[in-house]
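Friendly challenge for the regulars: who can give me the structure tokens for this chain first? No prize, just bragging rights.
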Amino acid sequence: MISFFIKIWKEEHRMSKKQSVEPQIADLGNGWLKTYHLDYKLEQGSLNDEIDNALSEYASKSGGKGGNRPDCKLLLQDSNLDYYPVLIEYKGYKDKLAKLNANGIPILKKSNNDDDYKTINSYAVNGAIHYAKALLQYTSYEHVIAIGMTGYEDEGGMLQHEIGVYYVSGKNFAFGQKAGDYTDFSFLKKENFDAFVEKLQSLNLTQEARLLAKEERETEITSRLVKLNNDIYKNEHGLGESARVYLVAASIIANLGIKGKVRPLEKSDLKCSTEKGNRDGDIMLRKIDTFLSEKNVPEDKKNLIIESFSEKLLTNSNINKPINGETQLKRVFSKVIDDLGLYYKIGLTTDFTGKLFNEMYNWLGFTQDKLNDVVLTPTYVADLLARLARVNMDSYVWDFATGSAGLLVASMNIMMDDAKNKIKSPEELQKKIIHIKANQLLGLEILPEIYMLAILNMILMGDGSSNILNRDSLNDFEGNYGFIHTNDKFPATAFVLNPPYSASGNGMVFVEKALSMMHSGYAAIIIQNSAGSGKATTYNQEILKHSTLLASIKMPLDLFVGKSSVQTNIYVFQVGLPHEADSVVKFIDFTNDGYTRTNRKKASTNLRDTDHAKERYAEVVNLVKFGKKKLHYLKETDYYEGTIDPAKGDDWNQSAPIDTRPTLDDFKKTVGDYLAWEVSNILKNDAEGEQRLGK
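First reply, four minutes later:
Bragging rights claimed.
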């Protein structure tokens, strides 16, 4: 009897469960496209090989390899002859259009940065954006339109539908950005498409949303880099430390491509042949050569890079030997573009290779001292140093221990932004930007593998790589350009530096040499603060003979969280003006910079602006320039103007003196406290006397 009722309940439950109306929704959407005379392809149809391959290469909506088949897809062209892939995903249930986060961005990741395949599979918009990311990573298309459509039957049996239209591009860090509200697909009609594209191009993330999106992508980058490093370390035997760095750098350069000029190297281009000249390494070298040539990299510089890749790695017989039909080079190349391709193709303005570099050093066998010598300057600190050095579009900026070139990247971005604000002629602006990249930046890095990362970083971030030199700045550099203008001195007007702290004087040896070679301008360095209190006395004395110390800024102890716990200061100089005994030095306690840092691997972000951090960093720049009147977020006690003895060189780390003189308020408080004590004693004595008298 019980089983009978269970059967009845199950049947009623089944009947009450809503059936998917996806076939009707698909018919409705595809019917519109048909009436618009648009050439659309269904699930099994092909738009072109490039798109097909991208969908095949990318992880499926279930997390497996490939098998991505949008319900409908189109390739539309606007009047400027630019192509826009359109990917449409249909669902047949109410409330299955899109799952959004608190900022209105479609969710594709879990809180731990793993792909949220359940959400991607269940919601139309989320699935369409998943497909769009595949095209951004594995094709030359830079803009993708992702459309989700779902619906249901209302109580009257009428079909209801909802549409979500999202724009996915590097401009919005490959997050889906809502394009507007639509009730049909008529915005795709030929006569409406230009206006729709114009609307897409005008979309901009709010500053807050942009920062959040950038932080999220950077967190993802770190996670992907950890995975890549672990995979190479565990599975690719025979690759030494330098070889891994070179191979990752070579893979990225070969896969970048230049639109309309150089096709990116793809996995399918590597044939695993043993024929000399057609081995995978030979093919990669030719692609890198072509890329660098089109980038107008100086011939001797290009040859140096090619020779470095060839000698260190790419012509090695072991890495080019097919095992089970696949070379080690192809295997690693595939891992690099699979794990990282999206991030360097969407144009993230971040020190991408710096992150790569630091992640690699997490598992390489270096001593703590060596590890702390090679520390990425956080991008916001790099920007601060460049601004303290008063970098503008006319500056000539150099760095004597450039690492992965993060400080030069920050400087280049400021220079180009300044040019865009000041130069109104598009032609003149273009000339200026070319000149900035080719002539106004110079960096030196002695370690060959790190040098390659600096080259890669500058190429990725705008190609100011022309004068990145693989030289010893202390013993093998006389101040000349490294390429083309080799007989000309580099006319440096700005010096930025985060030196290796194990160098002489905690790194002040670099500062003394650089500033002695400059005639004027400004310098900003971040260094272990013991350099200013006795560890670099001789160098400091020499510096003050030709340069004025303008400011000493004490930075947070956890600035390089997870890497180094040394106390650092930023020292700012005006070059070409000897420091006088009465010269005013601005001492700033910036240990509370407004950021909260963590070192938790599972944290969504390890850096949070909790107290007007961005405003505080801008305030420090203004305090150095204009003085106390710019105090706002920092406290009065955080700022102090004093003097140093130019003959000493060990008094650069001062704090605001504590005033111990008593004030009128102090006197009143003391008198008040005394009177209160006297009264309490009188009352106590009276009470004891009454007790003795039996009252």
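Confidence is low (pLDDT under 50) at residues 11-16, 366-372. Residues 17-205 form one domain. Your move, everyone else.
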